[in-house]
Amino acid sequence: MRLSNHRFTRVHALPLPLLVLVASGCASMGSTMDTVKDRATQLAQVAKAHAEAVYQRQQHYLTEHDVLKTFEDASEHSEAEVLKVLHAARKGSAAPNEQVAGSVGSAKTPSAPGVAASGGLERDAMHWPVEAGVISSDYGERWGKMHKGIDIAADVGEPVYAVADGDVIYAGDGLRGYGNVVIIQHGQRLSSLYAHNSTLKVKQGDRVSQGTLIALMGNTGHSTGPHVHFEMRQGDVAVNPRTLLPTTTLADATRVSTLNARR
Asked: Do 215 and 126 meet the contact criterion of CB atoms below 8 Å apart?
């Protein structure tokens, strides 16, 4: 019986060094958990502060609604020059760009979120190009002609973001009427365009993710005041961005404010 007890003790007792190692591992795991919790708390605080800042900006823009509604495109843009950029990108050759050299081949461009392999479009997979502002001019007929995007007015310097993952196929001011403009290709058929910016934060050839800061809003090109002229196209055809962008509320600040609260 004593021999049996002795064997039981020898089999199940842990050597002191191993006990120290286990204890150290548990302490380390506890420390890691605390670090993860601290990081999560910090991220939550940052998100809350950001949401509050967006809310305050939106409230400011709503008080300036009547003025912001006058900020829109001053005249037509050059459709032919935009199509030239899109066609060059699809062929895999360098798009014309006086400021930045580079090339993005569409054959190597993977499908972006919201873009089916066939090039079809999915709603609510996109992100609004700005977080706060007032839609000053909608998609549709304007001045007896087709307005192929939406104009979103706000202050100079309002951040402008990529609506989905993609490749920057143009970044410059060489397209007549658009001022400082960025064009992003998402998949092989879908593209987005952001015009009249004060500053560009990306260059041709850059790969961007949804929500990447690509520009700051401005009043360049043919414009009556600070706004972003935003277009989305399937192939060469401009589509109504509202059919692709999510319907959101200002409280949902992680997705973007109620830009359509007043039209």
From this structure: no
C-alpha gyration radius of the chain? 26
Burial 108-147 (b: 16+ CB within 10 A, else e): ebebbbbbeeeeebeeebbbbbbbbbbbbbbbeeeeeeeb
Q: What is the pLDDT of residues 59-89, one digit of tens each?
A: 999 999 899 999 999 888 899 999 999 999 9
Which range, 50-54, 126-130, 156-160, 188-192, has the best average confidence (pLDDT)? Answer: 156-160
pLDDT per residue over 172-225, tens digit each? Answer: 999 999 999 999 999 878 999 999 999 999 999 999 999 999 999 999 999 999
**What's the chain's length in residues?**
263
Local structure of 161: helix, strand or coil: strand
Residue 234, beta-bridge partner list: 190, 237
Into which CATH architecture does domain 64-243 fall? Answer: Distorted Sandwich (2.70)
pLDDT reading at 256 higher than 90: no
Quote the DSSP letter at residue 245.
S
Nearest to 197 by CA among 214, 175, 174, 176: 214
Q: How far apart are CA 242 and CA 227, in angstroms?
A: 17
* All residues at 6 or more sequence positions from 152 whose CB lies less than 8 Å from its CB, including other chains: 129, 130, 133, 134, 135, 136, 227, 228, 230, 259
Q: Is 164 exposed, middle or buried (0-12, 13-18, 19+ CB in 10 A)?
A: buried
